[in-house]
Amino acid sequence: MTQDTKSPSIQPPKSTSGRRGFLSVAAAGLAGVMIAPGVRLIEIAQAATADTAPSRGASSKVRWGMLIDSGKCASGCTDCVTACNTENGLSGETRATDSQWIRKIEIKEVRTGKTQSLPMMCQHCAEPPCVDVCPTGASFKRADGIVLVDKHICIGCRYCVMACPYKARSFVHQPLSNQKADVPRGMGTVESCTLCVHKVDKGEMPACVSACSDAGHGAILFGDLNDPNSEISRRLASYPSRQIREDLNLNTGVRYSGI
Amino acid sequence: MKITLRELDGTSRGYYLLLGVLALVTAIGMGAVWYIEHNGHIVTGMNNQIVWGLPHVFAVFLVVAASGALNVASMASVFGKTEFKPLAPLSGLLAIALLLGGLTVLMLDLGRPDRLIVAMTHFNFKSIFALNIFLYSGFMGFVIAYLWTMMERSAQRFTPMAGLFAFVWRMALTTGTGSIFGFLVARQAFDSALFAPLFIALSLSYGLAVFLLVLMLAFNASKRPLDAALLARFARLQVIFVAAGLYFVLVFHLTNLYFTKHHDFQRFILLEGGVHTALFWLGQVVLGGIVPMILLMHPRIGELRGRIVAATLLVVGGGFAQMWVTIVGGQAFPLVIFPGRQVSSSFFDGVVNSYTPTLPEWLLGFSGIAIAGLIVMLAMKFLGFLPARLDGAEKQSTQRAAVAV
Asked: Which of A95, A97, A250 to probe the B interface (max B CBs under 10 A)?
């Protein structure tokens, strides 16, 4: 693999000095005032954000994914769910109308009674049915494999909820309050696990991964599936794993072992 | 053939009463929409398990019936059945009205109906929903053009061509409507190419039933003569259409019964699904299928108008039952994520999902029917869509607004 295609591992945000950011705003502002009275404020804002933004957009060199070891996932533990709710500003209530971005599923083998537990959320498919069916393109997949909903063009038709094989999507049934600044949500639109894209773009782990690790289980491994040297890729190469509903051939970004 | 199309006189109290009722139902429906949009879908019975509820049942029925309502016109213009020509304008009018009624319900049940303009400007062409937007608007355009060629004397030579385009487009339209469900690859209740031909068969049946009800009501109310032989032909067609719908339903379930992976779903719909099972057998199959077929097979059916009305009402009722079983029943059956294993979670995995529609949903649904009714009534009054008489004597009747269709 060439240097170019070698995908970056999780990196801290590119920080630029405050002074440089300030100077670019000041320069743009001054130029606007002095030489171009018609300059639009938005251009000044863009000049300011161009240097200070934490990311220049997702790269297709990376494909973010997870490997979930159901053998390490403890039945009854819901730390990942709680962390997700806290991080993303979900109520945590579990009525039929409430959003649940991640949930614990208890699986029981009918014949033997053997039980297993695992977290289920958006599987960030490479070929996502939710993206296929979305009439407006609000359901989309980022270059790095993260499947998201553009809240500005979601019309709330719920076709993606019908299409998702994993029941990963929720429709917002009520007015929202106290939303998180990093996690836009809206009544009348559909939402699902974002793989904590706001954290990943800053080089951090998704909230559920950190919570599972903090709880001492370490059942969720997060990383770059495109990087053969990442731990997730090495584990996938060494041990058996599977995709849920692999018959659908969706090439999920979330993989499971131990089931 | 020269036929006289005449506007409704519209002076009767009955006309204005019905018009008033339809306007009121529409207004109340719009109030329900405001209530839902203000409070969110929490005030409906829908939830994250059953995301498409009663409004979709109404909307899909109306959209399917719309394409079928064009049957009569297609038979006249495409298949050369000249005896239906006088009714072709009414057929086209009903197609447009039902489609508008259905689309209104569909659109107003969106989470963000205020973003209609987004739906009109952002397209994902892999989505059958997005393609349907073109199929709907194209259908509307073709039928309007078709109606115009019928009404405008100088354009009448184009009527057969316009009729053919409208006919081909209606097949595409209903293929698209059925494929909304057929293309849902992950759902056990859907994921079948049969939905496209099934919906076409259903459209023939629902559309003709609605057409006959409107025709008989309008002719009866405006005291225009209606030929028994013509009604008998329609009745026989209705029998064939109902049978075609039942045939596709039979094939769908037989296929599912053959596939072991679908046995749980079949057991749910056919045996253990509670209200869905009852609506399937009693509503869709018996009252909506077998009974109307038996009623309509009477040798002198053309003279038994009450019987035709009863049979077509049953077909319409059976159609709503069928849409319920298909759309709501299909979602009530829990999505299978881990085949062959028992699952449980806080998100209702492995659980039969429940759904009870609330009043605002009923009001929204009925407003779709009312909107279609308003369009038909106003068009009949001001534009002259009804032949002056259809008792075999129309060919000699006075030609006031003569058209050749």
From this structure: A97
**What are the pLDDT digits (tens) for B38-81?**
999 999 999 999 999 999 999 999 999 999 999 999 998 889 88
Q: Which residue of chain A comes nearest to B120, CA vs CA?
A: A136
Domain residue ranges of chain A, discontinuous segments joined by +: 18-52, 64-257
Q: Which residues contact B278 (CB under 8 A, 6 or more apart)?
A: none
Q: Does A155 touch chain B (CB under 8 A)?
A: yes
CA distance B215 to chain A (A): 35
DSSP assignment of chain A equals --TTTSPP-S-------HHHHHHHHHHHHHHHHHH-TT--HHHHHHHHHHHH-S-S---TT--EEEEEETTTSPTT--HHHHHHHHHHT-----STTS--SEEEEEEEETTT--EEEEEEE----SS-HHHHH-SSS-EEE-TTS-EEE-TTT-----HHHHH-TT---EE--S---S--TTS---TTSEE---TTHHHHTTTPPPHHHHHHHHTT---EEEEETT-TTSHHHHHHHHS--B-TTGGG----SEEEE--
The pTM score is 0.89
CA gap B74, B88 in Å, rounded:
8
Alpha-carbon span B65 to B76, nearest angstrom: 18
Rounded Cα distance between A86 and A89, Å, is 5
Q: Is B299 on the interface with A (CB under 8 A)?
A: no
Q: Provide the shortest C-alpha distance from residue B286 to chain A (in Å).
A: 29
Least Cα distance to A128 among A119, A114, A140, A111 occurs for A140
User: Residue A165: exposed, middle, or buried by beta-carbon count in 10 A (0-12, 13-18, 19+)?
Assistant: buried
Q: In B, which residues are within 8 Å of A97 by CB distance?
A: 41-42, 46-48
User: Domain A64-257 adopts which CATH fold?
Assistant: Alpha-Beta Plaits (3.30.70)
Q: Which residue has the higher pLDDT, A189 or A8?
A: A189
CA-CA distance, B48 to B45, in Å (whole number)?
A: 10
Which chain B residues are within 8 Å of A84, Cβ to Cβ?
Answer: none
Per-residue model confidence as pLDDT tens digits over B166-216: 999 999 999 999 999 999 999 999 999 999 999 999 999 999 999 999 999
pLDDT digits (tens, 9 = 90+) for A177-226: 989 999 999 999 999 999 999 999 999 999 999 999 999 999 999 999 99
Phi, psi for residue B5 in degrees, rounded to 5: -100, 135
Q: What is the pLDDT of residue B389?
A: 78
Partner A contacted by B260 (CB < 8 A) = no
Contact A76/B at CB under 8 A: no
**B64 closest CA partner among B169, B252, B202:** B202
A vs B, Cβ pairs < 8 A, gives: 164
- Cβ proximity of B247 and B290 under 8 Å: no
- Inform me whether the C-beta atom of residue B117 falls under 8 Å from chain A C-beta atoms: no
Q: Could you tell me the residue ranges of all domains in chain B? A: 3-403
